Amino acid sequence: MKDEFQNELRGLLSRLPDAPVASNFTACVMRQIDLEESHQVRKWNFIFNWQRFLPRVAFAAVAILFAGLTLQQHELNVHRVAFDQNVALVARMPMPDVDALKNFDAIQRMSQPAHADEELLALASEVK
């Protein structure tokens, strides 16, 4: 069945007159094929094209570095302003009296934690 159909199709196609084509038809077809192949290769090589990829990466790195340095400088300025405000606040406060500083050592010793009484702890463990 398939062979009969192919034979009939060949017979019908052989009766058709040849279509007029340009003298450089083959060259035009081959050029178009080459253009399509080069376009496909160019699309694939776009990913791996270092001449285009490297400048983009370099530009992105410079942009990120610039943004990071700008952010760091901003944070540094914020800390400087806060420090200046704290220094101004301390400078406005009055100094304590000399009488308050006389007992400074005694007050400081009172705030330190007391050492554990070893004898008391020993007695507590014996009671249990």
**Percentage of residues in DSSP E strands:** under 5%
Main sheet summary: none
Secondary-structure-based class equals: mainly alpha
**Overall tally of structural domains:** 1
Question: How helix-rich are the residues, as a percent range?
Answer: over 70%
What is the overall silhouette?
A: elongated
Subunit arrangement of the protein: single chain
Describe this structure in words.
- Helix content is 81%, strand content 0%.
- The chain has 128 residues and is mainly α.
- It has one domain.
- The protein is elongated and about 125 Å long.
- The N and C termini lie far apart (109 Å).
- The model has no long low-confidence stretch (mean pLDDT 84).
Q: Brief description of this entry?
A:
The chain contains six helices and no strands. The chain has 128 residues and is mainly α.
Question: Which helices and strands, and how do they pair?
Answer:
Blueprint (H helix, E strand, L loop, with lengths): L1 H14 L9 H24 L1 H43 L5 H5 L1 H8 L6 H10 L1
